[in-house]
Design a protein that fits this description.
Number of domains: 2
Distance between the termini: 32 Å
Helix content: 25-40%
Structural class: alpha/beta
Strand content: 15-25%
Largest sheet: 6 strands, mixed
CATH topology of the largest domain: Nucleotidyltransferase, domain 5
């Protein structure tokens, strides 16, 4: 997404026009902004200027590890304002984030909550800062006879939707590694997996050899931990429900394909970002 902040000039073709700093900031929170072009004077200093956006972005990058847009420019005619804005852009663009992880929202569906019968059925992974996603349904390693009534009645009818890659466990592990490499241009970057259950993490790790997480520099956090407990906030829960009810591509009665691994992973991401969640840098 390309965002153009200006109160008078019209955005070029292909750009999203916004007039106020808070509108630009809301779009930046989505993580989908690749290019940002800023005016300074917007006609009402009480509502902020283009520099307001840069101050917010600088804090997010330096303190919270947010990944900034790939390109930020100033198109203001205000010479003095332009100088301080370009200085802020320099700080943002030159800040190194060696411990800023690549965030991956994910969810899995499995045969049963009973660990004696628990087998992985499907897994959905969604990148934090793009629309990239991977959805796999396993062709082996589980049996319908191991499924609980819930899995048979709710999970299995949703299989086959959203263009799954149907793979063996071994092929699924290789495909996940391939997908992760493409999301992580810097091989030194950490991988931070976010889900709403530690069961998801255990089932993912079981696809790989012991020590895979350490070798990949991968860690797991409960999405609520990354939100510092905000997952129980009514606003988060409302955003989660809104995704299932209004945004899922197909509906199964009421619930918008809840318990489809890819839909659930996308819902976690949508709710997380709706309440202002930002994937935090990892400690050394």
């Amino acid at each position: 997404m390309k965002v153009f902040l200006d109160d008078e000039r019209t955005a070029p073709d292909g750009w999203v026009q916004v007039r106020w700093p808070d509108e630009a900031i809301e779009l930046l929170k989505s993580g989908d902004v690749d290019e940002l072009s800023l005016d300074h004077d917007l006609g009402d200093d009480d509502r902020g200027t283009g520099y307001t956006v840069l101050l917010w972005l600088e804090e997010q990058v330096l303190v919270h590890g947010m990944q900034p847009p790939k390109k930020i420019v100033v198109h203001s005619a205000n010479t003095s304002a332009r100088q301080k804005m370009e200085a802020a852009i320099k700080v943002i663009s030159e800040h190194e984030l060696p411990h800023s992880p690549v965030g991956i929202f994910y969810d899995s569906e499995f045969t049963s909550l009973d660990e004696n019968w628990r087998e992985l059925i499907s897994i959905g992974l969604v990148a934090e800062n793009s629309d990239d996603a991977l959805y796999i349904e396993l062709a082996d390693g589980w049996a319908k006879s191991s499924c609980s009534d819930f899995s048979r009645d709710v999970v299995l009818p949703l299989l086959g939707r959203h263009q799954p890659e149907v793979l063996s466990r071994a092929a699924a592990a290789a495909r996940i590694e391939e997908w992760l490499r493409a999301r992580r241009p810097d091989p030194e970057a950490s991988l931070l997996f976010l889900s709403d259950s530690d069961i998801d993490w255990a089932l993912l790790l079981a696809l790989f050899e012991p020590g895979w997480a350490r070798a990949q520099n991968a860690v797991w956090r409960h999405v609520g931990q990354e939100l510092h407990g905000i997952n129980m906030n009514p606003e988060y829960e409302a955003a989660l429900e809104a995704y299932f009810q209004k945004r899922a591509q197909r509906l199964l009665k009421r619930g918008g394909e809840r318990h489809h691994a890819l839909v659930d992973a996308r819902a976690l991401k949508a709710a997380f970002q709706h309440v202002g969640g930002v994937v935090s840098p990892l400690a050394r």
